Amino acid sequence: MNTIAVPNIMPAVRPKTTAKTIVYPERDGKPMADNTKQFRYIATIKGGLDIVFMDTPNVLVVGDLLWYPVEGNNKLCQAPDVMVAFNRPKGDRGSYQQWKEAHIAPQVVFEILSPGNTKDEMDKKFGFYETYGVEEYYKYDPDKGNLVGWQRRGKVLEAIPVMEGWISPRLVVKFTLKGRDLRLYAPDGRPFLTFEELEKERRLAEQRANKESAYAKAESARAEAEFQKRQAESARAEAEFQKRQAESARAEAEFQKRQATENRITQIVKAMVAQGFETKMIAQLTGLSIEECMIT
Questions:
Q1: Residue 135: is its pLDDT beyond 70?
Q2: For 79-88, what is each residue's pLDDT tens digit?
Q3: How far apart, in whole angstroms, are the C-alpha atoms of residue 212 and residue 207?
């Protein structure tokens, strides 16, 4: 009887299924700016806000960063030219994924228009910002000198009637137009400056500091010279005083010496008179005059 080998058949193991990882792109394929003017305003606003909040750790200021408001939807996003998120820590990010940011939407956004921006594109941005919680939205067209802004009222963004002199409730930054040029002012009144303007101010401040330092050094040198002069004059005066003191002491010594001599002579003359010497003889013996020997 032949034995038939029965193969050891193991049940098939099905691979575990895992949820598909959603990638949130860090680029949208669009340039940060279409021209130098637009880039200059973006950089100036972003840099100025960095300075305003440099000492406030929980205020994030970013430029041209993709913002994803809804987890799981990597198609729904916008990249404001500049945006500010309060109560979020500073630091580098590849994108702003709102569910990873304590579900906090950026409160303030800026858009700087270029000739390439279309009305449909800007309407879409406005709808996005209104829907996903932006509190203040500012749009500036540098070619036309047109500045408009919106502030949240409930679920909608309402137009700010007058932007000239407007102070942002969130940023405490003042908006003005000088001709067509947008100028922003920090809470302390200092204007937002371009990198070139900042460098000019730094150089002027350095020149002023150098000038003040040179003046202070010159004043110090003059004061030291005056001090040394006064010290020398004081030393000369002291030397003159000591000289006069010495001369006075010598004169006093001479006077005392003369007094002592005169007293001694007087005693000798008196003694000789007492012994019966005549005045003429006393004069001859002592070398004194007759008048000096006439002691009563």
A1: yes
A2: 999 999 999 9
A3: 8
The answer to whether residues 269 and 286 touch, using CB atoms and an 8 Å cutoff, is yes
All structural domains of the chain: 36-193 (3.90.1570.10), 199-290 (no CATH)
Condensed to tens digits (0 to 9), the pLDDT of residues 179-222 reads 999 999 999 999 999 888 888 878 988 888 888 888 989 898 88
Neighbours of 88 (CB within 10 A): 20
Q: State pTM to two decimals.
A: 0.69
Q: Is 202 exposed, middle or buried (0-12, 13-18, 19+ CB in 10 A)?
A: exposed
User: Which tokens is 290 given?
Assistant: 């007759």
| Residue 112 bridge partners (DSSP) | 140
Model confidence band, residue 23 (pLDDT cutoffs 50, 70, 90): very high
Burial of 160 (0-12, 13-18, 19+ CB in 10 A): middle
